[in-house]
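Notebook, student rotation project (T.W.).
Task set for the rotation: take a protein with a known small-molecule partner, predict the structure of the complex, and write up what can be learned from the model alone. Partner molecule chosen: 2-acetamido-2-deoxy-beta-D-glucopyranose. Sequence and SMILES entered below by T.W., checked by me.
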Amino acid sequence: MAKHVAHARSRPRLPTLAVALLLVAIFRGLRATSALAWLAPPGGDETAESRSTGRRFLLQESAVAGTAAFWMPEEAQAFRQDRIFNAKQTLVPKIRKYYQKLEGLRDDLILQVEIEAGNRVEYQARPADWYSGLDGRFDGFLSFPGVQDARFGCNPYTIKPGSVVLVARGICTFQQKVQMAKAAGAKSIIVFDERMSKAPLEQQNRTGRVTSKGIQSWSAGDALSGAATVPIERGMTIMSVPAELGKAELDGAMIPRANGTSVVEAIQNGLTPRVLDVKRSKFEDGIDKFIKKDLPKLMTAMEGYSLIQRVSKADMSEPIVAQLKADRLEFEQAVKNRDYAEIRRTFKEWNGHLDSEIGTWELAETF
Ligand SMILES: *[C@@H]1O[C@H](CO)[C@@H](O)[C@H](O)[C@H]1NC(C)=O
Ligand SMILES: *[C@@H]1O[C@H](CO)[C@@H](O)[C@H](O)[C@H]1NC(C)=O
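Predicted structure of the complex:
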C-alpha cells in the first residue's frame, strides 16, 4: 500500500487502466479517512516548498479525476502536454501583452521628443526590467548606429558619445545591444520593435526567410516552446537579460516600431531629434479604458490558458481548474477595483498555480 501511494505521488505514468482504476479506488479510500493529509498544502507560511506541494496536490487531485474519466494516463499525459505547449504559443503572448499593458499604465515613461523646432511628439516607452528609475538617463540627442544590418546594433558602431542610441529589435539579444551601445559611449539605449523579432533568434537574418504570415514565431521566456505556429505581432515588451549575465550596464526602454522608424527617418533627413523631458504614465489615466477594452480580452486568454492546465480531456471541475478560476476572478476584481498592489499580487497568485513544469512563463523577454 505504501508503495502504491509513493507511486501515486509522482506524475501518473501508469501502465494500464486497471492499475489506474485501482489507484483511484485507493485514493478515494484514503481521502475518506483523511490519510492523505500529507499531500495537502500546509497552512501558514507560504514557502516555495508549500507552494509546490499545493500545486502537486491540485494536479494529483486532477489526475484522479482524469483517470476516473477513463483516460489512459500516459496518453492523457502526452495529450495534456501538447495542449499546454500549443496554448503557450497562442495564449501566453496575448496574456503577456495585455498584462504588460496593465502594468505599463503605471510604469511606462512618456518621452517628449522634439523632432525639430516646432515639432514635438510624445512616445510611450516601456522601461527595461533593469531600469534605474532615473528619468534623466533618457534626456538628450538621439542617435542610431547605421542603416540595414547596422540598425540592429549587434556589431560595433560609432555614434556621438553621450547620445541616446536608438536601435531596432532583433538579430541579437538585448544584452548584446546594451554592450555595443555602452562600448559606443551611449548614455542609454532605446529599442524599437521590429517585425524581425517575431522569428526565433537563430532564424533571424537568414536569407530566404519570409516575413509574411506563416513563419515560425517564438515566445521568449517560454523555455519549452518553439513549435511552429502563427506569427505574433509583439508590440512593446519589458526587456530583460538572463539572470546569469548580471545587470545590464545602460538604462534601456522600448518604444513602438512606428515611433522608432520615424525618429530614424528624421535623423537620416538631417534633423537632430532629442528627448526634452520624460514623464511618468498615470495609472488613473488609462485604467478605465483598459477595463472596458482590454480586460475582457485578457480574461478570455487567461481562462483559455487555465482550462488547458486540466489533466483530463473534458472534466472542467478539476481542482486545478477551480483554483485557477478563483485566482482569475480575484485578479479581475482587483483590476475593477483599480487596486494596483492587488493586481500584482493576484496575478502572481494565478501564475503560481499554473503547472510548474510546463505551464509557467516569464513576463519579460530577452531578445
Ligand atoms: C546578416 O546577414 C548578413 C549576410 O549573411 C551578414 O553579412 C550580416 O553581418 C548579418 N547581420 C547581423 C546583424 O548579424
Ligand atoms: C507612436 O506609435 C504608436 C503605435 O504605433 C502610434 O499609435 C502613435 O501615433 C505614434 N506616435 C507618433 C507621435 O508618431
